[in-house]
């Protein structure tokens, strides 16, 4: 008994302003909360206990109202209400996450337990009011005020803190509980200020107000508790207050407002899905409210910020020690001292999350950092963050995973997959015995393949691909899938339900997550590109491919980038199987990669040797310039100018210089010299005709004869045809010049340069080599068969033995980790 | 020789070229001290909160913002100094590390003059103490013949000592700080009795700065590292803040150089944009790192040069062409690699940007001499 009265007294003391308004407002108590705030959660619990309201109204999708019992089945939190919508013009998915300490969750649970009628009162997630929110995948409980940054920026400046989260913790989470309600109110009044909300927010606020009016009319003087985002509270208060002035109180209709239904022909729905703390955490890059759910869970459980701070310190220490990062007792003493000092200086009642993290960072990190600490800089964890920082953020984030009660209806994805499985004529993997063989050139089989690939990228067990095209250049048109173990299939489907209601949606969201994780790592990016193609490129992959194009523009190495470019371009030009030829989005990837190739190529400096990777990258860029100029924002003139600069840059490696030379030639030949002469670019480089190869070769041999082969390899890799056909200016004479130079070489130089020369001429097929041989004979005035020059006179057995020996040497080198370039 | 360095403040008469922080902000410090009611750590002239306000500013109290950077960094630094660990400020050159250490020392101890400038030739004498040899020879070792260096003075007076560019000192010299920081005592074996041990008074601590370019921070012994808390000072994260700072500083410098027109804002935008772009590229790939530091301080000096060129050569404000010409000399210094990187940026990146000044910058790229 005493506990209840204590809580009541405290609630009254804390919420005195609210109480006073409640009476004036006709018993409507509005609590403005920050989503996922334990302090707000506690406030809501106290208000319910003290008010015993007849109605508890919560900001949440009103179309879930009929299924509220589902929410209270007894799940392990965090879970989320997942909503999806699709019509001809728009696809949207959104999440409404709930965890143990969410004020909304507490309102639902405690309200129901206290015998109140509980209702969600916000517009359904598919409603156009949400359409203006950034991104196709949104979070209802993201901070509304984040969209009105000006006010919070001023507040941060006023309190001299670096982020809203730090400000919030100091003012509310770790502050004295008394007066919390009044402070919250003042805070949100200030944040809302006189900012005009956008039309979406206004529509939602009007709708919520209509529910509150109905509840007030039905309650007949009994209290009504309303829990909404603090940002909406001032608007709701003034909407209700105005009516009172006009004497409308109690006259309003007692019927609940209509829940708008989706327009005809549109598909919409909401389902429960299990959620994780990782997804809740803003640090991992999700759009969300408060960061570090693990810490706030601790704060909620302990109920005392000081205990939570100590728990966080323990969690971080344990995590770091588990990962063998030395954390000495002296370090911990220093960290504690710092945290306490910071809390005191910042005027915190007890240590907050940021105090503890700052203290730990100060004491544990004895290096310079590459990027600012994520909790003070805001934004996500950047690539290359200090390992201690990464572990600290992970410890704050926690690893809780939600679990739905077994009686919860399955998420729509489960039904969607089952329906498609039947629709595509594929047997359930549990019963199927025979492998599935697919001919990708046939439309029905392609649909099946896409379906199976989407399951694959979602990690749903059942079918395993045993053969099929390995990459975009693989000329394989058949695929084979074998049914395998189905254990865990159901659970995996439920889990994947968080990504979307339909398989194609879910797959694209899952791929998007992989893109986020891949960073600028080319291997995963290339794989991702091909997986996207295998799963079917459509409207859904737009964001995905845009993201991919963005990330490609930051890849640090030219050779692997070339691979991505070549495969994207190949698909764009030739693919008839997957239906992505001439796809505009794929074109974005090509464009991004070409720009990046030139950027990187101009920066490569180095010594001798032929790097085929970078030659291939330039060749791919050439192909893009020649065959897909419409895709590129880089003009041929600009490309030619860049190539000219590279070819003259003495610090660039010889092969690259040759390749750039060849690129310029190839561009010249393709446009009939228009690049060289008719270009509009004002650069002197692009207007000048391609340099004379003879001069280049002579210059090269006089300075570094051993790089001639490298240079030629680059040239031939890019402009072999032009050289062989002798179409470009001076093309015919090139062979003569090289012949002259090589004949004049000293024996030593010749031997040094020979392997590279051989490698260079290997770019020519036998027929063209024969033509070169003919020309050489002609130059010497000899009548003989050119072909005989290309034939070796050595004993084939001897050659075989030599090859064998070479292979042996290579293998031995490999064994000792001395693997030579092959 | 033993005259206190703080005498600079009292001499009056001629204005020093650059007065130390405690002199140029004397009024603010006095006001803060008078209004300061928060608890002060022993030996401190200001409370932690007042010291923070002195550095990050407080509009209402008329305190200007002196350090543009995140305030959590300032808070952590101050709290560190109130503990028994030293403060190590690390970061790229030109990120205002020295300014920050000067401000902190001025706020905490009332003087920023106890400074050891680290370098290859720094010896233990310059850190702890040396002797007036004439007196030493005539009177033998005595407190009178002792010439205290900044560390000894800081310890006996209970003040903050600044150690600039600590990683440029040889390891063995750095290590003389070890006992000093952990035991907080300097032994002077030449003196007998109690005078032979100088114990640190409350208020003594060390702020060291090290830049991540000249020589890695790795060249510090683990033992010494352990006695410091590290704080990394970053370049200014926000474009507008950096632009405003460059504009303010460059305008002041130009006025002092007798240049009448203030710098054009759109030209500065292009300049700061270029600096930020080249700095950002450094973070991405190893090969792209500029060896020159593209710091805000450097941007200010380029903006200064741009204004001077424009005014004294043509009688007008500096334009984009001046930016290119000045970048070649100041930003690319003597590194051909950096010059190539700069050229590549002008050739390939700049044309993709919209705006009249960016276009002008691209067109002026030939001014980047080979």
Structure write-up:
The complex is a heterodimer of chains A (about 800) and B (about 375). Chain A has about 800 residues and is of the alpha/beta class. Chain A folds into 5 domains: about 1-140 and about 180-275; about 280-395; about 425-600, no CATH class; about 630-790, no CATH class; about 795-820. Chain A contains 37 helices and 11 strands. In chain A, strands 1-7-2-5 form a 4-stranded parallel sheet, sandwiched between helices. Chain A has a 4-stranded mixed sheet with strand order 6-4-3-8, with no helix packed on it. Chain A has a 3-stranded antiparallel sheet with strand order 9-11-10, with helices on one face. In chain A, a hairpin with a 4-residue loop joins strand 3 and strand 4. Chain A is elongated. Mean pLDDT of chain A is about 80; it is low at about 1-25 and about 675-685. Chain B has about 375 residues and is α/β, with parallel strands linked by helices. Chain B folds into 2 domains: about 5-230, P-loop containing nucleotide triphosphate hydrolases (Rossmann fold); about 240-365. Helix content of chain B is about 50%, strand content about 10%. The longest helix of chain B has 20 residues, at about 265-285. Chain B is elongated, with a radius of gyration of 23 Å. Residues about 1-10 of chain B have low confidence and may be disordered. At the A-B interface, helix 14, helix 15, helix 25 and helix 27 of A face helix 4, helix 5, strand 1, strand 9 and helix 17 of B.
Largest sheet: spatial strand order of chain A: 1-7-2-5
The helix tally of chain A amounts to 37
Question: What general form of chain A does the structure show?
Answer: elongated
Q: Please state the CA-atom Rg of chain B, rounded to the nearest Å.
A: 23 Å
The count of DSSP E runs of length 2 or more, i.e. the number of strands of chain A, is 11
InterPro entries (chain A): DUF5682 (IPR043737)
Region (Disordered) (chain A): 240-263
Domain AAA+ ATPase (chain B): 83-238
Region (Disordered) (chain B): 1-24
